Amino acid sequence: MIIDVGMHAGEDTAFYLAKGFRVVGIEANPVLAAAVRTRFADQIDSGQLRIMDVAIAEQAGEQRLAVAAGDTSIWSSLSPEYVARNKAVGVHYTYVDVPAVRFETILEECGVPYYLKIDIEGLDLLCVRALHHFAQRPTYLSLESSVSAPGAPGDAVITELAELWTLGYRGFKYVNQRRHVTHTGPYPPFEGVYVDAPFDPAGSGPFGRETPGQWEGAGRAFARAQLLRLQHNFGGNGGKWVDSLPGRAYRRFRMRVLDSPTGWYDLHARLGQAPE
What we know:
Blueprint: E1 2-5, H1 11-18, E2 23-26, H2 30-39, H3 41-46, E3 49-52, E4 55-56, E5 61-68, H4 80-88, E6 93-101, H5 103-110, E7 115-118, H6 124-130, E8 140-144, H7 154-166, E9 169-176, H8 218-235, H9 245-256, E10 265-271
Parallel strand pairs: 1-2, 1-7, 2-3, 4-6, 7-8
Antiparallel strand pairs: 5-6, 8-10, 9-10
Helix pairs in contact: 7-8
């Protein structure tokens, strides 16, 4: 089983279903939740997919969801800080009241998954911290990392790694989400069945044993995180020094010489023994 927290329009859920996994999809935006129920009606009827149209929050009850407009709908969030940062760069929001639950409730009802994908715009660690209440852990987990958040805050990056370490995760990868559309799944597959289809640009891409790159221990992952933070603060959206002379030069270098704009990163974690 996979739990897709923040399923949006079902970009990742479609991939997980195609690979043969059972999926629990969680989506707070009622318009998107209704759309994915229609999109995956057959999989819901067969029992392969369950959709829960709720938000994940610190406290259960009705919550005010900020819904980002149009093409930025993926940036909808319950986090006032996250919403304020996006408003500062021109994202428009409307608001709707939605039911919310603690992630512990989801795990109690559905069980601990093989892979847990988290992408709920500023509140990913609510799901990570909920795992402390359970003896079992997902074998693989991913979240949207703060290395590419506005300002790339160092304390948030350290907290991500520390939380995962205390849960027993010993292998880590920072995966550039801008590049996953260029990847193809291995054949024979390492996860589920082989899927001969490109990854959706709005999705999280491959997971578990099929993620690109080498697993790293916490020390190397921390060092890599500092480099990614530096790159983001010079050249990424919301970077501290983007508008400085060095920042503008760095962005021009990446675009004109490397032909590689800065990306955003997911942090993937593997349970168990650290890589050698």
